[in-house]
């Protein structure tokens, strides 16, 4: 148990999840959002999509989320990279966020990062 | 009788006219003869003016002849008809007051109808008759089923049984294969079953009939053999009366594993006709129901679908779907028929309730009274199609629905075939495929044979009927249009009743006209539960329409694949009504029940349409499905066009609107123009005959899930081709996918060849040309700005004819027959390891222009042709395809000021920056051109001149949460279908005025309606929003309250201009409310309500502080939510609500109260909800006391306002002076100081869309 501390899920968009990305690392905690394009009841693995990008979500630990293909979901969990360099998110929690404006959401992520960065800078300056 | 002439059948047939005759006539010229068949319930038959009475003969006439049982000699499709012969000629006939004794005897027909028929010359309906020779009749009381001529009369011991009882039911004649006699050949033996409730006594004794027989035993008699079967029409007439058979033998028949005793007729069988019994007077009631089966007596109102569908009374339909039925010709429109043992299925469809009379094998129909009308006879079609077999396998409601669908498909012009049968087969197939896809499996029922269903009737599926049916009504378009018109008219008459004539009619027509394009009402397809079938086409007026043979309806459908040959099923749509008078908004639409009659018989009654309301359909997403259609010829033809062809490639950069006559400064011009870029590439296609023959066929089951993109399936590994492309830079090999009608796709190889090679350096770059479309040319409408198109190269094509090459600014005329294909480019992405195909997003036939990128994610390949190019070509082609900004240089070269800016990203809207245009002496307006997409919020009438362009309208467009004002004369644009608030439109090439967010529509500007919001369900279309959205058009006097319009309010108006603050807030309480009846001042009639609110004060909370917001008029209406429907459960206002459910708005009920009390002043001092009603005072000017319910209602108003949404209010501050002024004007003491709240005046109110607000917040944050 090397890392016992659970990190907060960093909100990202699926577009930011490419192999060379800073978020594309084993066991990094993320908050991802996308439309559920498929779900297998046997394996509890769902696939969310955002634009052309998709991500596999392992939902075996989730209990109270009902999955409906076509709805938009948000998951917080840890990213795991399989030997074939394919990633999936081991979800800690998830919720249905139907009605979300993804464009607006993307912008708010940017804004949030900007804010956190400024905040971090000012904290460091102190 | 004495002077009646005796007519021969030959005479009648020879004349070939439908006539009615009688032995004695009271003939007059004016009125038709009083007819025995029309004497009963004459009013029951629909008095359709198109229906013609049978022509009466002008002299008394009788016919003498012999009535006979059917025989093989008379060829009649119904097979089992009575015959009537006068020696020379035999025709089919039917007879009233039938007696078995009449068979084979000479009768004199005293009163009759004659109808000519194709197959046997004619059909005689015998109404009144008598025996010619009455002497030897008495002896006849038994009738051998097989005449003694044939039977050897040797009494067999086996055939000793007899049956007598009441004849319950009779089956149709069916054919049983059996081996007869010594020969081993199998013969088809016709026969039919009868069900008799018999008495168990052994001996049939005619005299002992009335003494103690109990007809309790259920017995089946099978009349077997062609001679016995010929008794079918006669025995049908005896159903319900008592009969006796003797000389029967017993047989055991196995039905569904059980043995059943059946009596079978022999050569010695004898039929005894009914005897009159005192008990046995059959009463024929209208409807007689016993369990599921019953009998029905009624007039036939119409026969449809070759007699399969018979309309009886309103919403009562008889289904005669079983092929095997033997029906009389006399079942005609207008005849009174008695149906026995029919299934009475009360079915609730989603559109209404229908009583279906489902005929099964037990059903028998007798005509009680012949039709007096000249209507066609029922003729059985013996042809058994796959559709009829399919229908027979369904439950009755599903059968009924399928027949309605079939009649809808009837309304389509089929494939270009002159063979009616072929066409009808095609429609049958289509109906079957469509119905199969819609009907749930539970509505199919297994069918047993005729024996099973007749003998063990209760156990077979006929019984278990689904009584609720969620199948939606499929309607021909004309019926649908008619239905809406009826609805509108009813509504209008309702309004006329409600509003006094002076209120409503005096000033409204002008007002309607003025806001014609803005007044819209939408309602969803769920409300009507109607499915439309039709083809999409572009009408001559440039509108997209859904049409069938009956009518057409305007359609708003963005991004649709318009394929005129396909039949579309439209299920998800909104009906948009434009130009509805405002007073109609408060009225809920009355839901008329839909009549199935209008489906099968779409001849709409002439409706006097007093309203000029245009309505159109706005199709929802995934609403338009293509109904499968087999068009084997169509797509072959399509592919042939590509055989060995060369094609020009061009891209549309702008469409100029069609200039109607009288455009200022323009000559009259009937042509339409499109600006296009001709690409310096030519497509050379190599479809061969074999390719075309072997074209794969894809069934497009579901547009949304199954994407038809064959080149994705065919993994492309065209390494070789790519190399070739690299070595020969001016020729690019590509893979071409041609989509034809009916989802046929063909993937083939093609070559793009650079024109520099072909035409001596004349075409080394793109050429900008102007395409001219003459009015007959519908291509203009199909072309989309930004789309690429192919045109076949030929000696006489528009690009080549009369010129050696194309140069810039050429005007190229298009002919109507010119065919164009939309083309889409995609590039083989070599870099991605899975070899997937990256469809180049910028170019497709669909308007995937940069400005319309929002649609991209959902767009599917809908172009006629897709070209898959090697990846290397992407760079090459992006020059032509990508950079519209670069390409969009104006036509007139050298005028660099007029750069056309096209924004490349939807986020950055107006690329055309508000550059300061230097004052110029030019006659024409100057400025930058812009293109953007936005949502139209409001269209206001203004009379101002912006940048020298006289504008009559100002269109407020929401582009990325900023309001952009577009001024212009509108004209043509305003009449685009769907133009108005709620539409999302792209404005191409509109002129920037130099002022921020102000633009001008010019005659070169093009407006495209992309979509229409369904106004987000029922909420947004509610009048509150309309009032809010269109606030500025309410009289300006009201804008600044009338009471302040004096010189005393100068400070106010200054304030208003200077310090307008917008904030979002919720209503906490209603502080003061002044309600009064409308004054006679005509300026206030705009409101079209009988109440006015001169002053209202609301305690509002914007999240940080609490204000006292004062307002009046329509804004107060909005905040009080008076236009909204009154929730019934909200408060007990029973006596108002119950009066009429159609007036559900709060305003209406309030009006009732205010009318009584003239003026009501309500004050509420509690600003917190818990203390709300503790300190409330209501004062009225009338001397009547407020009733308890009125008091309750007024208090409820406050609660209603509090539970409202978040409002955005534009306010200006108020000082004490103004408050004093208001107090004095309204004679109220406001005691505002008591609350110590800041008072503000609300100038504008509108509902806040949280999403829009979030965006604007974000915008604010980003800018800060």
TrEMBL record, chain A:
One of its GO terms (cellular component) is CST complex. InterPro entries: Ten1_animal_plant. One of its GO terms (biological process) is negative regulation of telomere maintenance via telomerase. GO terms for molecular function: single-stranded DNA binding; telomerase inhibitor activity; telomeric DNA binding. Pfam families: Ten1_2 (PF15490). This is CST complex subunit TEN1. It comes from Arabidopsis suecica.
TrEMBL record, chain B:
Keywords: Chromosome, DNA-binding, Nucleus, Telomere. It comes from the Eukaryota. GO terms for cellular component: CST complex. The keyword Transmembrane does not apply. Residues 29-40 have a biased composition (Polar residues). Residues 29-49 are annotated as: Disordered. InterPro entries: CTC1-like, CTC1_plant. It is found in: Chromosome, Telomere; Nucleus. GO terms for molecular function: single-stranded DNA binding; telomeric DNA binding. It holds the Pfam family CTC1_2. GO terms for biological process: positive regulation of DNA replication; telomere maintenance via telomere lengthening. Belongs to the CTC1 family. This is CST complex subunit CTC1.
